[in-house]
Write a structure and sequence with these properties.
60s Ribosomal Protein L30, Chain: A; 8 helices; Alpha/beta knot; single chain; elongated; 2 domains
């Protein structure tokens, strides 16, 4: 059976995986159920499709207590994700832009970021399949429908995605509070660029910082250095738009 955000029950999830016509964010399997032929088939198909599945405690299923979920729930997306190769083939013009999210866990933040990116003319958003919130109905609502106007690209490895971008003539700009350069010191209007934003509590991972061509910060006027990630992105992304518009004059 299905609700707007989930498919539940072994048979329903198996049917969705076999048909391969739904965008599944993640499959949750209770640690308390016994593995059987159907569970093994769900795991096998999920691996083939590159879908994350996790064995979780029964408490994770409490919000779904009213459903006969049989200890298996698939969280589904309201949109179809785009493949990175497909995006690169479609965006071959100069001065394209991407936002890469590294560990953003709040649906409200992701929704706000998508809305900002659409308003600023960003060409796409990359999210990882693990350790990052996926597009769900809350994200759709907070984005005010903006999810329908921008490609959302899901990848298994952000490090590999960044390398592929660099191999295709993209410049990578990571954000970090301890960076030497300010975000407005970069000239954004003469390159294809991707801006990496990390979560407030962790920031951008060391591997992505190392792979970046630029590392920038937003200067702060006091020691309270904790801008919300969606607000921080707004400051940076509208600076890139400002430069682009000035360059057109």
């Amino acid at each position: 059976m299905e609700t707007p955000d989930i498919i539940y029950g072994k048979n329903s999830i198996l049917e969705a995986l076999v048909a391969n016509n739904r965008e599944i964010n993640k499959i949750l399997i209770s640690k308390n159920i016994h593995t059987d032929i159907k569970i093994n088939k769900i795991k096998e198909l999920a691996q083939q499709r590159g879908i994350v599945f996790q064995f979780v405690a029964k408490e994770k299923f409490q919000p779904y207590a009213e459903f006969n979920h049989q200890g298996v729930i698939a969280q589904i997306s309201p949109i179809k994700y785009m493949d990175l190769d497909e995006f690169l083939e479609s965006k071959n013009h100069f001065n394209s832009s991407l936002v890469i999210l590294d560990g953003v866990e709040d649906s409200h933040n992701l929704g706000a970021i998508i809305r900002t990116c659409v308003c600023a003319g960003v060409d796409g958003i990359i999210i990882p399949s693990r350790r990052n919130v996926q597009v769900n109905s809350t994200v759709e609502k907070i984005s005010a429908g903006a999810i329908n106007y921008i490609p959302i690209i899901k990848v298994n490895s952000l490090v590999n995605a960044v390398q592929k971008l660099k191999d295709n003539n993209w410049w990578i700009i990571a954000t970090d509070a301890s960076a030497k350069d300010n975000y407005y010191d970069v000239k954004y209007n003469d390159m294809n660029f991707a801006i990496i934003m990390g979560a407030e509590h962790a920031g951008v991972s060391k591997s992505l910082l190392k792979a970046s061509d630029f590392v920038v910060k937003i200067p702060m006027q006091n020691s309270f250095n904790s801008l919300n990630v969606s607000n921080a992105l707004s400051a940076i992304i509208f600076e890139t738009l400002r430069q682009k518009l000035i360059n057109k004059k």
